[in-house]
Design goal:
Helices cover 85% and strands 0% of the residues. The chain has 273 residues and is mostly helical. Keywords: Cell membrane, Membrane, Transmembrane, Transmembrane helix.
């Protein structure tokens, strides 16, 4: 029985998509290893510099070394988690833009464009979700099917909303663009979710505002009054430099911390960037 070498070669030969996936996996491993090495280098360098500076201030090598080691460990863990934090932030930006892109897709299909043409036009927008669709379009042009390209987008972005959009787009492509009721319903749900988040943040903002006013205006005034009264009736020893440092440094730092916290709690779609 003769064995057809050409058939065996075709069966054993990897598809273009499999080769791309394997290459991407290899690149990700190399990038991860490189990131770990860079994190170690940066944390050690900054830790040594911090140790020298702290040693000059404290004039205690053992204490400064102990503090520097703890600082270096925390810095290394932070640098190690930095890509994950960037990915989470990118995911939030993509989710914030999803309703706009879905509505744009609906309008393009209503205008009579084909599915791929509508997808391609939506990918030319400036939103983060449009940039992800641009990668999907590029993958399709390279030979991937629409389902494969959307699945790869789901792997890049760990988001339930993105998966729902991908599933609706894949279903729309499979069954034709005549029935877009599922995509309309999804767009309405995404907009409703953002509206609910906006109302929840507005109610929390009242509390945040009260805390900020208290710390930025009331607390400094009460502190100065306490110092003036306490210096007459109680033994409170504060030098003028210490009082000035607390007023012009400590309270503003607390204000900045509160503003940063408010900014982190603000939904991305309300920031307007």
């Amino acid at each position: 029985m003769k064995i057809n070498k050409e058939k065996i070669t075709k069966l054993t030969k990897k598809s273009v998509i499999e080769e791309i996936i394997e290459k991407n996996a290899a690149i990700q491993k190399k990038e991860l290893q490189k990131h770990k090495e860079n994190s170690i280098k940066y944390s050690l360098f900054i830790g040594l510099f911090f140790w020298l500076c702290l040693g000059l201030i404290l004039k205690n090598i053992v204490l400064s070394a102990g503090v520097s080691i703890i600082f270096t460990i925390f810095l290394f863990l932070f640098l190690l988690q930095l890509p994950i934090l960037k990915r989470v932030n990118h995911t939030k930006k993509v989710e914030a833009d999803l309703p706009i892109i879905v509505l744009k897709m609906i309008y393009e299909i209503k205008a009579g464009k084909s599915f791929f043409k509508a997808l391609e036009d939506c990918s030319k927008e400036k939103e983060e979700s449009a940039k992800e669709l641009a990668i999907v379009v590029e993958d399709i042009k390279k030979g991937a099917t629409i389902n494969e390209a959307l699945e790869r987008m789901n792997k890049r972005i760990c988001s339930l909303n993105v998966k729902r959009v991908s599933s609706n787009l894949a279903n729309l492509y499979s069954h034709g663009t005549k029935d877009i009721s599922g995509l309309k319903k999804l767009a309405q749900e995404l907009l409703l979710k953002q509206r609910i988040e906006s109302k929840e943040f507005s109610s929390k903002m009242i509390v945040y505002s009260l805390v900020f006013i208290t710390v930025s205006a009331i607390a400094p005034a009460m502190f100065q009054s306490f110092i003036l009264v306490g210096s007459y009736f109680m033994k409170i020893d504060f030098t003028p430099i210490q009082v000035l440092t607390i007023i012009i440094a400590l309270f503003p730092l607390i204000d900045i911390a509160i503003l940063s916290m408010i900014n982190s709690k603000t939904p991305i779609f309300l920031k307007g960037n």
